[in-house]
Amino acid sequence: MPGGATADVVVVGAGIVGAACAEALTAAGVKVVVVDRGAAASGTTASGEGNVLVSDKEPGPELELAIASRAEWGAVLARLPERVADVEWESKGGVVVATTDPGPLKAFAAKQQAAGVDARVITPAEAFELEPLLTRNVTIGVHYPADAQLQPVLAATALLTAVRDRGGSVRPGVDALSVRTAAGRVVGLETSAGEIACGAVLNACGPWAGAFGAAAGAPIQVLPRRGMILVTAPLPECVRHKVYDADYVGAVGSGDADLQTSTVVESTRAGTVLIGSSRERIGFDDSVRVKVLRELARKAVGLFPFLGDVPVMRAYGGFRPYAPDHLPVIGPDPRVEGLWHATGHEGAGIGLAPSTGRLITELFLGLTPHIAPDPFRVDRPAVLAA
Ligand SMILES: Cc1cc2nc3c(=O)[nH]c(=O)nc-3n(C[C@H](O)[C@H](O)[C@H](O)COP(=O)(O)OP(=O)(O)OC[C@H]3O[C@@H](n4cnc5c(N)ncnc54)[C@H](O)[C@@H]3O)c2cc1C
Q1: What are the start-end ranges of the E strands in the chain?
Q2: Candidates 3.20.20.70, 3.40.50.150, 3.10.20.30, 3.50.50.60; correct CATH number of 6-80+152-222+325-384?
Q3: What is the CATH number assigned to the segment(s) 94-145+224-322?
Q4: Ligand 1 test: best mutation among 44, 69, 157, 278, most atoms within 8 Å of CB?
Q5: If we measure between CA atoms, which residue out of 357, 252, 332, 325 comes closest to residue 61?
Q6: Which residues form the FAD dependent oxidoreductase domain (predicted)?
Q7: 67 phi and psi, to 5 degrees?
Q8: Residue 193 CA to chain centroid, in angstroms?
Q9: Closest ligand 1 atom to the C-alpha of 278?
Q10: In the chain, what are the domain boundaries?
């Protein structure tokens, strides 16, 4: 570490991913400063529904990260300061249903079971027992007891509180402009508030990670994938699990730029029901698109007919940070020594944040990683194509 440094690591981005990395690093004794040009958790994290899912991932590296991260949330929540530890965590489980041919959902569940996921194929009658208000058109369901939910802004701010409690610092309203290098390695972060001397910089800029990477001399291909959510007025208990239509998995994994919608419905502790979700690659266009909201509403009523009579309170959207091969980007940048990335988590950053933080910490300290880091490395063709 350079002499006079004020941090071992400066984390750029106080979303859930930057917060989880900072929390894990400080838990291991690393001195951290977190900067964000906005308020903490004001980026994509503020748009997340808060699902912590294993149910929606194909077997492969992302599912392995999701399984590890689901367990890691338990460890992280257990070490949070008591005054902020209530992040509305609910181990509510997920229910995925098909209303057409049951074959593909059954086959998907079988693949996941083989990969170690607790995926229980259920009959329509069993699905109605779990979710009494579901459409009677269900042909098959799969129950995923491990799926959970939390409130993403509460979670990110709780993680940052732990960082502060351990002597780290969190600086909102500070724009990271570039890195300063000496002899080819990072010695500081240049910001709108002056330079912060440090031994390493972690790019956790979410959908803006490509821009910060380029400014730091190491462009990466991370793009925004727009999503919109409808929020109902608070209701008495009506949706007990995270419930979604079987075609959601296809939409998540698709690389299409065109609008895709699939029904995802869950209630929150406040009583509101969140209705998602859409996926579009339209850059950073944040206009409210009635066409998208109409399609979300129509499909949600198909899954839960009672929603047709429920008032919608508001709608909002955000930009999922998207790598072209649908895998997060986690690790050191081989082009600029001391520059690291933790980004590209697309629609799963809330769920995947704790294992990302743990992996960054393990790699940074030269410890044995708890999960194979290779699939997420920075120097893969899809990420460096920019
Ligand atoms: C509609 C919607 C629903 C979603 N639902 C879920 C869900 O249920 N479960 C789930 O796991 N995921 C979900 N996601 C995805 C999840 O929200 C993201 O993967 C996650 O929030 C990404 O977190 P992040 O910390 O990488 O990015 P962000 O939260 O965007 O944080 C990046 C931060 O970097 C800051 N920043 C950027 N550039 C700079 C700079 N140059 N200097 C200083 N600061 C900078 C920004 O201000 C921002 O605060 C959803 C996303 C959307 C859009």
Answers
A1: 7-12, 32-36, 51-52, 94-98, 120-122, 140-144, 148-149, 169-172, 176-182, 185-191, 194-203, 223-232, 242-245, 260-267, 273-279, 312-322, 329-332, 339-343
A2: 3.50.50.60
A3: 3.30.9.10
A4: 44
A5: 325
A6: 8-363
A7: -65, -45
A8: 29
A9: 1
A10: 6-80+152-222+325-384, 94-145+224-322
- Per-residue pLDDT tens for 171-200? 999 999 999 999 999 999 999 999 999 999
Q: Are 139 and 99 in contact (CB under 8 A)?
A: yes
Q: Which residue carries 């990395």 as its tokens?
A: 21
Phi, psi of 318 (to 5 degrees): -160, 180
Specify the residue with its C-alpha closest to ligand 1, atom 38: 205
Q: Which residues contact 359 (CB under 8 A, 6 or more apart)?
A: 330, 331, 369, 370, 371, 373, 376
DSSP-derived 3-state class of residue 236:
coil
pTM comes to 0.96
pLDDT in tens, 125-171: 999 999 999 999 999 999 999 999 999 999 999 999 999 999 999 99
Residues lining ligand 1, Cβ inside 6 A: 12-18, 35-38, 42-45, 47-51, 175-176, 204-208, 212, 227, 229, 276-277, 318, 320-321, 343, 345-351
Pocket probe mutation, ligand 1, options 350, 352, 356, 360, max atoms within 8 Å of Cβ:
350
* H or E segment to which residue 354 belongs: helix 349-365
- Average pLDDT (280-289) is 89
What atom of ligand 1 comes closest to residue 205's alpha carbon? 34
Which tokens hold the place of 144?
A: 């995923």
Distance 18 CA to ligand 1 centre (A): 9
